């Protein structure tokens, strides 16, 4: 079997998810032996043109130039993978979606008319079909390696779609929401981080985005019973992945 | 009339996206623009209306390479607004966390982003067959930095543990002691790194720019201190906006920083070593003497050497702190009150400034953030104005590479600065 030709693209983002590739310190040289990293601007100078077997996309679509670029990339990639909260849901730059764009621009730039940006920041599947999603902010190294292995072996990747709570139970963490009255987004957030925040005694803040089939309305009502103000409930759901459909529902009933 | 064009669409091996546009006619630069078209993400605007304790988790997302610095600077500015003083233990753990990120980020830049240029490879992966031990050393050091960040911060990218006044969970001595042998090995690796980079063919180029860094009376400036420059600036962080201004230029989504009444300035490892040389660890200073490179040094290509020196210093200091610390749980309660706060820290790429205005409910009313690369962009353009005429006789491809190297000297993080670099040098 010839090596799959891999490309890594960046859109509106912090570069953290593509850095996870370089953070595979123990596995990087092995990965480079089994796949051909053909396009990775952050990591190499000699970037080859498509088509590619797998395209990993980091970042949200937030400006007009990105719309045409993601469509071209879709044409070039047999399998297109959205990596991270920005590519999947639009990330936290989608927080601008709830503010006046003119105000947002003026707050940062003295000459807002020079800045080209879309009214909304969105995930890439609002513009092109996506074949696979690797959640996270940033993505989890273990899940990335599992995904690459599964592609090489021609099997379905074993990615968790259940909530963070399952990981919390497996770690035998104290339930921060019940025992500490700490607001926790774990019940509606997809697993993959290893229940990181609750393991440090703080509430999950939903950075991996929603799990499959969550019940955000119920969790929002629990937050209300715990005494959170409407504004605090909205901020819980509208933080790192505010544009995710389920989190919009959670925030929507208290707005 | 000789009209020439050098064109690179995407500057590789930098974080984020941009372009350089240079037009040359008869040996003169007609126009030179470092174009940053990384899409703006508007952090300063959407932080308004958030609660203070959400801010560190959000600003960490400005940069995937130096999230620790963003969290830390946010936290310190909020503490300043609330009038909170932190314990020596918290200061030590924060310093350890910041230095662990320097180790990760400097190793990434020296070996994976910069060294391939000097050694004639397109990437670090391409170097593996000829330099297997060098690449393995890089990966070992990078992993050491990341592992230490994870133990103290909870996660290497976007840590979860640092909070206002301290940490959600204080690291145990046993967790930290596991790093002692690895840091000793890391120290040897860092010294090897200084030997490697000082043997590289470093272009001879000098620009007497003003270099600016956080400087502290009793330690190598990292998380706390005043803002001190080689041009005589010596100000408190609170006065930052009085002296350091920004202007918007049409070709860039990143604002240009300059010192009022003066010019562009340079921040980062070279500025730090120039400003704070005497506070480097004795072995880091010894490594400098053995390298044959003198400081203060105003050759931006020497930045790679400064980074390697800071690797030695970071290993030394991390060892010193870990051997001394016996972390205990602390009371992290405090009173939320209205106020305004300022903080500046040294991110791996240089000076990072944050300030916040907070109301009595703990809600952010105003946020002001200036990233290291925002500080450096104007300086990069000024380097290029002086450097380009010296490479006009070189073959096109070589001249282009050299111009890219000028940009890469700064290890620019365009995601931070605005958040892209594309190089177009046109000779007309």
UniProtKB/TrEMBL annotation, chain A:
For this UniProt entry, the molecular function terms from Gene Ontology, in alphabetical order, are: iron-sulfur cluster binding; oxidoreductase activity
Family matches, as SUPFAM superfamilies:
HydA/Nqo6-like
Q: Does the keyword RNA-binding apply?
A: no
Keyword Oxidoreductase tagged? yes
Which positions fall inside the NADH:ubiquinone oxidoreductase-like 20kDa subunit domain? 14-149
Any one Pfam family here would be Oxidored_q6
Question: Which UniProt keywords are listed?
Answer: Oxidoreductase
Q: What is this protein called?
A: Sulfhydrogenase subunit delta
UniProtKB/TrEMBL annotation, chain B:
* One matching Pfam family: NiFeSe_Hases
What is this protein identified as? Sulfhydrogenase subunit alpha
So where does Fe cation get bound?
A: 66, 416
- Which keywords does this Swiss-Prot/TrEMBL entry list? Iron, Magnesium, Metal-binding, Nickel, Oxidoreductase
As cofactor, the record names: Ni(2+); Fe cation
What GO MF annotations does this protein's record show?
Answer: ferredoxin hydrogenase activity; nickel cation binding
Q: Which residues bind Mg(2+)?
A: 369, 419
On whether Lipid metabolism is a keyword of this UniProt record, the answer is no
Tell me the residue numbers annotated for binding Ni(2+).
Answer: 63, 66, 413
Q: Does the keyword Nucleotide-binding apply?
A: no
- InterPro entries in alphabetical order: Ni-dep_hyd_lsu, Ni-dep_hyd_lsu_Ni_BS, NiFe-Hase_large
